[in-house]
Structure formats: C-alpha cells, structure tokens
Amino acid sequence: MTELSGGPGLPQERRLVTAIPGTKSQELLARKGAAVAAGVGSVLPVFAARAGGGVIEDVDGNSLIDFGSGIAVTSVGSSAEAVVRRASAQLTDFTHTCFMVTPYEGYIAICEELAELTPGDHAKKSALFNSGAEAVENAVKIARAYTKRQAVVVFDHGYHGRTNLTMALTAKNMPYKHSFGPFAPEVYRVPVAYPYRWLNGAENCADEAAAQAIDMISKQVGAENVAAIVIEPVLGEGGFIEPAKGFLPKIVEFARDNGIVFVADEIQSGFCRTGQWFACEDEGIVPDLITTAKGIAGGLPLAAVTGRAEIMDAAHSGGLGGTYGGNPVACAAALGSIETMRELDLNAKAKRIEEVMKGRLSAMQEKFEIIGDIRGRGAMIAIELVQPGSKEPNPSATGALAKACHAAGLVVLTCGTYGNVLRFLPPLVIGEDLLNEGLDILEDVFRPALTPSTRARPVARPAPRT
Ligand SMILES: *Cc1c(COP(=O)(O)O)cnc(C)c1O
Questions:
Q1: In the prediction, which pLDDT does 2 show?
Q2: Which domain covers residue 219, as residue numbers?
Q3: What is d(CA 424, CA 161) in angstroms, rounded to the nearest whole number?
Q4: What is the rounded CA–CA span in Å between residue 245 and residue 238?
Q5: pLDDT of 314-326, one tens digit each?
Q6: Closest ligand 1 atom to the C-alpha of 266?
Q7: Is residue 28 one of the residues assigned to a domain?
Q8: Does residue 57 carry a pLDDT above 80?
Q9: Atom 8 of ligand 1: nearest residue by CA position
Q10: Residue 256: exposed, middle, or buried by beta-carbon count in 10 A (0-12, 13-18, 19+)?
Q11: Model pTM above 0.85
C-alpha cells in the first residue's frame, strides 16, 4: 500500500518533538477552557495545524498517526487532492445560493451518485442535509409521511445523533442524553444481535435477538403503527457491533411484510469504510432508505437521505430542506471524495487494512488477556476490553490505553455502551508502514498497562475463546 493523498509537503511519518501536549497546544487549551463551552469535549489535548494521508500535525510540530479520521470522516485523507481541487474551484465560483432559492448542478450530481452507489437498482431519489443527525431526522419525517404512521423502532446500543429526535433514537444515556430530556415520543427500543454479549451464546444470537425484537414490536407497539425501523448495519458508537449474521435479513423481512420503512443508518459505516460502498451489502440488504454523512465529502459537512423514489417523494414540496443543505462547496468536495474512492479503489484498501489489523490484533489477543473480542470490517475495527478471565467490561484500562496511545503519537478513539471498546478508523489512504507503526504503538502501550486488572497471560497458555 502506498501513501496517498497526503497533501503537498506533509511528511507521512510519526514525529514527536515535544511532550503531548506541547506548549502551543497548552496555550490553546487554556483559551479553549475560557472560551468554549465545557460540554464540547476533545479527545486529544493537541491542536491540529495540518492533516492529510495518515497523519495529523499539531501546532507544536508533532506528527501523529491517525487511527480516527475525525470519527470516520476523512476516509480519503484530510486534504485529498481531488477534494481540495474541486472544493477550491467551487469556492471561487460561489459559496452559496441556497438550493431552495436558485439551485445548482453539484447537488444533483451528488444525488445521481447516491442513486448509483447505494444498494438496489430501483428508482431512487435523495435529499441533502448538513449533518448525520439531520439526515436521520429527515428519514423519519419521510417514513412518517409515506406510511402515515408514527412509531419508530431502534435498537439497543444504537447511535443516531444528538438532536432532540436523534437523542431519543440513541441508546446510551451518558454523555449523549443525560440531563437533556424530555425526548421525542413514539420511539421504541428493541434488542440487537450482539454476539459477544448474547447470554445464550453467539450461535443462538441472530435467531433469538430477531425473535425478541419482532415479538416486542408486535406486542408492545403493533407492527401496523410502525413507520420506520432504523438500524446501523454495523453499530458505531455502541461498540462496532456487527449484528450476528442472519439478524438483519430477518428484520428487513419483517419490515417488508408489514409495510414498515427499513432505514439503514450508514453514516459511520458507509462509503468504503467497511470494504464495501455500504455495510448492508455484506448480507445483500437493500434498504428502503439509507442515511449517509461522515465519509461522504472528505471532511466537509454533507449528509443525505437516499431511497425508493416513491417513499422519498411522499413529503410535500417545501417539506424537506434547510438553508445550507447540500451546500455547493460540500457537494464539490463530495464529488472529489467519491472520485478518490473510485480511483484508488478504497474498498480494496479497507479490506487490506482489515487483514493487517486483524492479524496483528489476534496475535496481541494471545498475549493480553484483557482483549475479549476483536471485531469489525474493513477499516472499522475494534477491540473490546474486559477484566481478565471474564467478560466484565474494563473501561478504566480502555481509557488508560487510549491516553497512552495519544502520548505516543497515535490517535485512537474509544466507544461502546460500557466505554470499554478501542476503535480504529484509519483513513483508507494510510500507508501500510504507518498502519503497522500504529499497531506497534498499540502493542507497546499494552505492556506497561499490565496492572493486576490488565495483566498478561503467559504466552504458552492458549487463549480461552468464547
Ligand atoms: C455520527 C453518527 C450520526 C450523527 O452524525 P452527526 O453528523 O454527528 O450529526 C448518526 N448516525 C451514526 C451511525 C453516526 O455514526
């Protein structure tokens, strides 16, 4: 794998020239504390100066390996040539006219791309928005207008955003919902097939979870009242949970049989992240509606709802939109991002990243008993950390390991309902040497972390697998 799209003059290397954070970042941290609301947290204490390819350079001249992609956004890198070129040209022409006032071609071009790239060869239409949460809200609006029903079904461990409706759709209280209620009504949560934590074992997970979910919907809500079932084909914030194979098709079938709009939230998993254009392709699922954002536009804010033309057209004229939705610069960036994905075959890159990562992580699991589970697809890979000899979540070790990675110049993120998942979302254009160096760092930080609760098992003893 070669280093790609690094932006001009940005060396693709890890380089630590100060402690993390350095003095300039410390000064900015003080200003942040004084000027920025406390509720807006930052994972790392360093401030970015430049970024591209597989690295982020901070204001003190440190260069960090990026296993975060700004939360699965910069799949093509943070300064991809085609994104910069197309967005710059659009900036020169015009920044905004509002598509609802005087429309422009870029918006249509993205909707055409979405119709082509998303699963299914039926007639499709799209509407563009600014953020993932906005896309999910609009998918619900559209499904309600189409079905003339109100209820929305979501799943344990699901994450769909931070606006009022999407907080209601999101499962986890802290930090997303706590003290921010009351939440939108007519939202119902049902079990998801989480193989690692299914009490009756992973092999029973898909069937049992689907049966429970369908039973709950039928008994507690009534299928005839449900407008939409909304699910992430790989659950992101909830811990990179891949629903056990067979679960999603059963839910889709139930939705079809009952006139319910099936919405795949691919905001994190879409656009080559899992080694396919969309994660739901893995089980051949064709959603009625699909929400996209994050990876779509190479770092600019853009989101979309795409789906069956007859469903998308159910909302009356003027019922969908927003001042900035489908901003022309963001559309130009998205065209550049999609061009890059095609030209560099980023699906193949994502699959190669999975191969390298899973190989290294499996070897680590043999040595470090706290690695309970390795999962994910493509460049959306995670490890779930537990207390040795059990499946008891280990959030303290997870936090400590993430901090140690940051201090060593590796950007990693945590996630998971229990706060015990380290997730890896490198840009798909990262060089393989940087990828391996990042994994070296990860392996190194596991060693000093071998406190009684995180100790290693003697290498000779085979790992008990569950
Ligand atoms: C990030 C995310 C959202 C929310 O997107 P924003 O752009 O932060 O509003 C919704 N759904 C999923 C699956 C996400 O990962």
A1: 39
A2: 82-343
A3: 20
A4: 18
A5: 999 999 999 999 9
A6: 13
A7: yes
A8: yes
A9: 132
A10: exposed
A11: yes
Lowest mean pLDDT, pick from 212-216, 353-357, 397-401, 450-454? 450-454
Q: Based on the structure, what is the number of domains in the chain?
A: 2
Nearest CA residue ID for atom 15, ligand 1: 268
Same-domain pairing of 335 and 350: no
Atom of ligand 1 at shortest distance to CA of 130?
7
Judge if the beta carbon of residue 160 lies within 6 A of ligand 1.
yes
Ligand 1: which of 40, 71, 134, 136 to mutate, judged by most atoms within 8 Å of the beta carbon?
136
Same domain, 404 and 295: no
Compute the distance from residue 70 Cα to the ligand 1 centre, in Å.
12
Name the CA dihedral angle for 192, 196, 197, 201, rounded to a multiple of 10 degrees.
90
The CATH number covering residue 61 comes to 3.90.1150.10
**Same-domain check for residues 90 and 202:** yes
| pLDDT tens digit sequence for 153-207 | 999 999 999 999 999 999 999 999 999 999 999 999 999 999 999 999 999 999 9
Alpha helices (runs of H) in 282-327, residue ranges in sequence order:
309-312
Pocket test for ligand 1, best of 129, 159, 234 (most atoms within 8 A of CB): 159
Cβ of 269 less than 6 Å from ligand 1: no
| 240 within a domain of the structure (yes/no) | yes
